[in-house]
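Crash report, auto-generated. Payload:
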Amino acid sequence: MPRPGFVLDVDRSTPPMLFWHGERFSLERLPADRSRVIYPAESFPGLEDPQSAIRDALENPLDMEPLRALLHADMKLTICFDDASLSLPKMRRPDSRQRIIEAVLDLAAEAGVDDVHIIAALGLHRRMHDYELRHVLGDRIFDAFAPNGTLYQHDAEDPENLAVLGETDHGEVLEINRRVADSDLVVYANVNQVAMDGGWKSLVTGVASYRCLSYHHNPESLQNTRSLMDRHHSALHHSIWRLGKVLRDSGPKVFQIESTINTDAFPSPFDFLSKREWEWTARDRMTYLATAKTLDRMPRRAARKIFHGIEAPYSMTGVYAGFTESVHERTLEDVYRQHIVEVEGQTDILTLGVPFISPYNPESIMNPILVMCMGLGYMFNMYRNKPLVREGGVIIMTHPTYRDFHPVHHPSYIDFFDEVLADTTDPAVMSDKWEKRYAEDEWYRHLYRTGNAYHGVHPFYAWYWGAHGQQWAGKVIIVGGDPTAVRRMGFTPASTMDDAFELASDVVGRSPSITHLHVPSVLVAEVT
Amino acid sequence: MNSKRHITIRAQQFAGRAEQTIRSVTKPLAKYGFPWRAPTVPRGIELPEKPDTLGSNFETDWARRPLASVARSAFIAGPLKLMTTVIARPEAHGLDRLADLSRLDEPPPLIFAPDHHSHLDTVVMIRAIPPAWRQDLVVAAAADYFFDKRWKATFSALALNAIPIDREATGRQSADLFKELIDDGRSLLIYPEGGRSPDGWAQPFKGGAAYLSAKTGVAVVPVHIEGTGAIFGKGMTRPRPGRTRVIFGAPLTSYEDENTRRYNARIESAVGRLTEESVSDYWTAARKASTGSADRLSGPETASWRRKWMLTDRRRHEVSGRNSRPERDWPNLGPRAK
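Recovered output after restart:
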């Protein structure tokens, strides 16, 4: 039985804590008697027979007929799936999506369905490379569907292939992929890594147009999202659920299949990263030293290649199918059971070790905007009820924050950093003044549609993702970051953790309480 | 003078001995009699019948002892790997279907049931089977072919961990031995066809794999091997190097109340689906299997030339068994615009 997550009060005998520092990591000693560390639960065991579990879910769905009964020969079937932003790091093969889609296709073949399209629901994310599609779907599906053009990626900028399905009572227009809209049945194959994923968000963001996404991906929604991991208190999710209801009432029949995975993110020899520091064996300590020293001396590019080459030994922990809302509720129960850690009270300083990866840089570079997005967007939002840090408190992140951008994946990020952030770091101002220009830029549109670039507006969305954290914190300090990049983003650079505590004292006084969110492994703090 | 004569005599003696030695060494073996050769039997004497220690009676326990296992591992990792790479260049597909089992702390034993086109199939399979099962793999080999001579039997047992199986009828002795080995945690490679394909189409599956699986509860992995027939098929005197593909299917177990015959038919159709998958794709194979429109694994029941004819057309689409790229069917785009 895996041990649950818990809160450790740091005392003099507590060993230094592991902090991610991009493609490197370090051990930092936290002040005794006023610091605490939140540890996630140990990884849950995976399902013994995921194939049978999937077949069982398809035969016994929630609030819908079995998939077998929904399939008939002359129908239009569309299967959508999450893109490469899930899971992080990428799951070793076979991916859960491959397992699910193969099970769906077996049933479709039995029913004699000829018209099958498979669409990567990537919203405004970059198009996946063929090798990524092969990794996610497996060679069999790729070889069967890609050559004849029935496996493809959603294009949010193709007016010919977008259809309007209706409007919410808040005036939000649901505009989605035409093939999805015209289908007799849409099957969605999802991987739920955190509570933010899944539900109506899968389709309503995955196959939507820029216009449709802009109703909820904006500063106002994201500043009122408390938090991303709690859909009942998230303005973003409220908007998506309203659009989901339009889809339910006016769109095709949707058969949602959601799967959860455990938190077993790192294979050997990096498995020590998921252990509690005082339980590191002699081998773990030697591995840490060897790895840390090697990474310190290694060119950044080589270190990045190593980390992005990691295939996580995630296992499927649950799979549910049927009506989207019923399925998602069951999925959330499973996700929270694994992730929730109860924490008493807020803290003055929250420390976050920012890793090498975020949902927007698989196989790519973690540029400064993504550091902000990961720290203030994702890690800060890992709470329910109230944030871990008090309003006006300090957030300290560790990351090298180099001014390095992937020119193929993130072209608009480069201009955003040089042009928009030089002008303002206020999400509302940049939304009014700059967003439209980037969203409608023909060159960015061309790169998004034909290359492997994120949409022109994506850096804005990445920035808005951190809007709540940015607004909440009194000061944000980045330890070890490139000072010019850190200052450009409106944050404070520090050389060491001690310097960061010194700088934070201006805001939180000389003996603040400190909380460290221990990653890797995902956790959601239930703050009382 | 005396000393000179003495030297001459010694040299003559030495030359004589040398000549005698050379003669005796070069003397034809046939001129040696008993005890160098087996004794002849006097007339009227009837010898007691010796127990037959070859064929399906060949004892192979020794080949599974630690020393033999080490020697076999070295042979598989060295010469066999080199030979397979040079002649057959195997590529394994569908291993993800076995990934869950291979990642268990103790992967359960499996019965691998491929179609059979060539003697190369065994070495190609040994290379393609994941390491989790390779070490403890035993191969069911035809007793009348691989175990008919002592040197062949010894080599087969030592190098391939082969166990003799009577292909006409699975005797109780073979079945009990296989069951014992599977219970002991060893995996089995068995060709349900019982022999190599004579014309490229598969032969009807015999029930050995299904029977053993049903008896032991161990899953059967259907496998399709592509290309070995073109490299060193039945009747060929020397191999023509090329590429091969091994496609693993999802493990099958027998249903409750399913008799061996039906289970065997299910294994055969699973191998047939993999064969279809190899010349078309996964989705086409799945649809053909569900509509029953897939070619039978054993081909149409028609004149032999037509069977061959159909096979040539099919082989155009295979990527294996040759060094050149397969032919492609380009879509018909209609008459050229003027």
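Post-recovery validation: The interface with chain B takes residues 49-51, 92-94, 98, 102, 105-106, 109-112, 114, 116, 138-141, 143-145, 313 of chain A (CB under 8 Å).
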